[in-house]
Each structure stands twice: as structure tokens, then as C-alpha cells.
Write a structure and sequence with these properties.
The protein is built from 13 helices and 13 strands. By secondary structure, the protein is α/β, with parallel strands linked by helices. It has 2 domains: 135 residues, Rossmann fold (3-Layer(aba) Sandwich); 209 residues, Rossmann fold, CATH 3.40.50. It has a 7-stranded parallel β-sheet, sandwiched between helices.
Amino acid sequence: MINNLPFDAIEGTACIITGGLLNTIKAKTAHGLIRQSDRFKILGVIDEVSAGQDAGEVLDGNNRAIPVFDSILALTQSTDKPQYAIIGMTAKGGILPKEFYPTIKDCLKMGISIINGLHEVLGEIEEFASITKLNGGNIYDIRKPRSFKELHFWTGKIKEVKSLKIGLLGTDCAMGKRTSSKLLVNALIKENIRAHMVYTGQTGWLQGGKYGFIFDATPNDFISGELEHAVYECWENEKSEVIILEGQSSLRNPCGPCGSEFIISCELDAVVLMHAPGRKYYKDLVEYGKEIPDVSSELELLKMYGVETIAIGINTMGLTKEQALEAKEEISKETGLPVILPLDDGMSTIVEIIKQRLK
């Protein structure tokens, strides 16, 4: 059977399929689930390149007791059979590479349901669909666009929201916006501040996000309305003091310019800007030659949109520890703003700024 269970009812044990990409940026969905998932208990990762290691150690050197196996068979011989197998990587064009087909089929033959966040709808591929009919599993294509009747237009009800609304935006995609959003919400909760995150990507939902939608699976006419609806629903149900919005892409990435909707449609109170000093060109646009603007330029653009940037977060990919610290100091001097390395420094600096805003 295909997609016969409401997505919000999906939870339980799961493994993650990364197909040799676990130690690359293409597996950022897997990385998010390894760091934290409230929806699934992750039993293991299927990745032939990193098999035999701990997934957390592969990711960032921290053991998380999530073993990596070279096949679903090896995983089920070592631990319980998971209820779900999550596709934990991205692929060019959002199409599942053929080399992943055998693993997907093996899972379905065992009655393990597939959760797919790629653009390609796997439930419509006959060779997968036929296996599910025989073995009782399901295919959940979570990026499949929702029906017109389920979507919302912008209404202006955002005016009623009393929460402090902060967007985690970036100078490019794959900057750590979602990870930093989760870290910030966790840090605020530890300080007894009622904080919630609005997710806008499939990984946010996979991690257990309660409020949000999948931005790039939503028709453009409804983006503003879905953002407003998610924020309003979060405030109405939770009476959050702070709502953190997970941004997507960047204001000037030509592959997917994004961010103005967050600022304008949600009437953001502030922005935390994520930046990667080790990256010169927009992700996957090296050959095109489109360089990422400097941080000061992006801050000026955000100011023109009428929103204040309260801090900058540094993605350290491609930098040594020493280079990251140098970049932190340079950007702080250049902008006059607090600059943090989220995974190293934590979120205490930003939490203190937010506390002052709430007084």
C-alpha cells in the first residue's frame, strides 16, 4: 500500500540509507537525524563506505551509538528490524540514483516502509509499488505536493502573533540553518523559555517537527500563506515566547533565491545569519562562477528589507580550527555583531540577546 497513513502519525524505529555518502554534505538529512530525532529511534545507517563505524563519529567525531552497516541484511542480523528506512541523502535533480534500487527493494521485501524526501515520487515506480503490495510495507513520499484544499493563502493573521519571531537565514544553502535552529530552540528551552521551531524542509519534519511545511514541495502561490499559517498555528497552540524559523537557500542564490518570504510574510523581528567563510561560490555553482556576496553586503540587504540581524553563525566546513577562529574574529570586527561557531560555542550568546528582547 502507498502513503496510506497520515504523515503526522508516522513514528517508530528506523534506519537511514546513505549509499556511501554518509561522510559527505549530500547526506545532510542523515546528519540531522543522527544529531537529533524526536520522531524516530535510529537503529543504524546503511552505508557501504563507512560500514563498521559509528555514524556520530563519522559525522563529527562524537559517538552516538548508531552503527553503520553495509546492507539492510547486516543491520537486521545485528539489531531489530526497523519499521522504516529513510532515504537520507540528496541526489541531482531529486531523482533516486539507480544504484540505490537494490537496497530499497531489499527493505520493501522485508516489509520495511520507505520514507522518501527526494522530489521523485517513489510510490509511482512500478517495481517498488509491486513489492509493497506483496510484502505489506509502504512508501511515504513526504515531498509530494499536498492537495489544493490543504494549503493556505496569506491572510494577515500574522499580526496577531505575539511571539518573538527569529529567522535563521543564510548566505547560501547547506549552511547549517536547520541544525542551528534546533540548537537554539534546545538552548532556549533549557533557560525555561517557551520556544518552538517552524521547520521548512523535509529533515525538520523527519526530526519530529510539529509545526511547518516542506517549502520546495509547495506551489509558489501558497508559500507566504503556509509560512504564516505555520507560525500562527505554533503561537496559537503553544503560546510560544520565541518562534525560530528554519530558513531555506539564500536571498541571492540564483538556483533558488529565498528569504524575503520569511522576512515579509512572517514579519520577522530579527535574523541570525549563517555564513561559510570557506565557501567562495554558491553551492554547486562553481563552474557558473557565481560568488557568494560578503557578509556586510548581505547585512545591508537584510537591513533594506527592514529586519535587524542580531548575530552571525559560522559554518566551518573547509576550514581548520585555527582558520575558523580567525574568520570569527574578522567577521566580528567587520560587522560589529556577535559571531559564533554553533557546534563549538553553543547558543548561549544568542540566548542572552533573546532574553534582553523578551524583557
